Every structure is written in C-alpha cells, then in structure tokens.
C-alpha cells in the first residue's frame, strides 16, 4: 500500500500571521508536520511515500532531499492551483492499488490512524473516508451517511443534519483514479468536487469516524494541535 501527501499549498494564512517557515516544516511538538506524516506512514508499512511540494518554497524540497527514510520517498515539485490538481500530479504513482492520501496539515492521533488503516485494509469497498464530528473549519465539507456509515453525499451546507465533516484523509482504491481523470477532463477543481464525483460515479464509500482531526491553517492552530496530541485538550 502506498501513501501520499499533498504539500503544495502556499500556507499564506500562516505567513500573514508571522509564521516564517513553509507550512510542511512547521513543527508540532518539535517535529515538522511533513516528517511526522512520513514517520507515521512508515510505521504503517508504506511501500512508498509520494509527496508533492510547490516551487515557491524550495526549503521544503531541500529538506526532503536530505531526509533519511526507511521506505522509498518520491518527491514531485510543482505549483498547482488546487489540492485536486496536486492529487492528479501524484496519481500516476498511485495507480492500480489501494492508497492513502492526506494533506500535510492534517493532525490526528497515531493510534486512531493505525486503526483506520487496518480498517481500510480489511474493507471491501472503493474508499474509506476519514470523518470527524469536531467542527473547527471555516468551510467544512459535510458528509451525508446512512446508519451503516455508507456515504451518500458531500455537502457544502448541513442541509441533511449531518453529524460529520470530512477530515482530509482519504483511503481509496484504483477506481478513484478514473474518477479523478474524469474530473480533470471536465475542468473541475477542489477535492470536495472530486469526492462528490466519486459518489456520482457509483463508487462504494464508507466513512470512518476519527473522533477528532485538526487542520493547521492559522498560527493559533499550532498550539491547538500540540495540546491535542499531548492529550491536554
């Protein structure tokens, strides 16, 4: 199983709030966010880890080039207009097998992630999407599920009294790459539109409740993440 990291965003909000490092290199409890993901993915038996970084912050590419890893690490350097476009740049290296994709600023507890990966390995579906009932997002994507956690839709507004929102971690099977290509051909953008198209294409998706997942978008989120991982929040 391969793992992939979307790490090509500008991190403009962090920069505007005085954080000088590129977002992937921002440390949470002393560990760069991108290093933390690579370590966790390695512990989960990754065959290969594929990362996309932008051209605006060469420090990130330089950091990864020097990083010693126990599994193959492939780095794609390209500035893209959206996370979905970044995913598309990674997709040639993910074809034909199950994989896990996440954004670099997604913060979760390691034990929860290990259980999630095992659940996906055991599942007979096209995807297991991480969800959370902790809503601290400026534009949450609501996940419409039935009682068995089968995903029926992804909504910008909570019109169906949804309990969960997308957590930004995607475990997907090979069919998802076909959907991604179709989205690109149609000129679609944004990961949420890709997720909606997965449902429209009839893929069997299930939701997995992490309980709590955080995103690091603002300087204050760094402290929140550190407290969360230290079990102090």
**Count of discrete structural domains:** 1
Oligomeric state of this protein: single chain
What's the number of extended β-strand segments? 13
- Helix % is 25-40%
Q: Major beta sheet, specifics?
A: 9 strands, mixed
The chain-level mean pLDDT equals 94
Poorly predicted runs of 5 or more residues: none
Rg over C-alpha atoms, rounded to the nearest angstrom: 17 Å
Q: Count of helices? A: 8
Q: What's the name of the CATH homologous superfamily? A: Spore Coat Polysaccharide Biosynthesis Protein SpsA, Chain A
Please tell me about this protein's structure.
The longest helix has 13 residues, at 110-122. This protein has a single domain (2-229), classed as Spore Coat Polysaccharide Biosynthesis Protein SpsA, Chain A (Alpha-Beta Complex). Helix 4 crosses helix 6 (175-185) and helix 6 crosses helix 7 (191-200). Strands 1, 4, 5, 6, 8, 9, 10, 11 and 12 form a nine-stranded mixed sheet that branches. A two-stranded antiparallel ribbon has the order 2-3. 40% of the residues are buried. By secondary structure, it is α/β, with parallel strands linked by helices. The mean pLDDT is 94. Helix content is 33%, strand content 25%. Strand 2 and strand 3 (31-32) form a beta hairpin. It has helices at 12-16, 33-43, 58-66, 83-90, 110-122, 175-185, 191-200, 219-229; strands at 2-7, 27-28, 31-32, 49-53, 73-77, 99-103, 106-107, 127-132, 142-145, 151-155, 164-172, 205-209, 214-215.
């Amino acid at each position: 199983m391969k793992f992939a990291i979307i790490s090509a965003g500008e991190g403009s909000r962090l920069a505007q709030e005085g954080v000088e490092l590129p977002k992937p290199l921002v440390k949470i409890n002393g560990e760069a966010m991108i290093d933390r993901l690579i370590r966790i993915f390695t512990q989960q038996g990754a065959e290969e880890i594929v990362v996309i970084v932008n051209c605006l912050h060469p420090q990130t590419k330089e950091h990864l080039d020097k990083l010693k890893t126990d599994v193959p690490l492939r780095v794609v350097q390209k500035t893209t207009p959206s996370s979905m476009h970044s995913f598309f740049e990674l997709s040639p290296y993910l074809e034909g097998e199950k994989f896990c994709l996440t954004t670099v600023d997604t913060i979760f507890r390691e034990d929860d992630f290990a259980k999630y990966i095992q659940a996906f390995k055991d599942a007979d579906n096209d995807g297991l999407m991480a969800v959370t009932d902790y809503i601290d997002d400026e534009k949450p994507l609501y996940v419409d599920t039935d009682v068995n956690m089968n995903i029926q839709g992804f909504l910008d507004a909570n019109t169906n009294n949804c309990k969960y929102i997308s957590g930004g971690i995607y475990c997907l099977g090979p069919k998802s790459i076909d959907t991604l290509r179709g989205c690109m051909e149609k000129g679609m953008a944004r990961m949420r539109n890709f997720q909606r198209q997965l449902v429209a294409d009839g893929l069997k998706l299930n939701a997995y409740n992490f309980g709590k997942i955080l995103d690091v978008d603002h300087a204050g989120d760094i402290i929140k993440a550190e407290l969360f991982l230290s079990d102090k929040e």
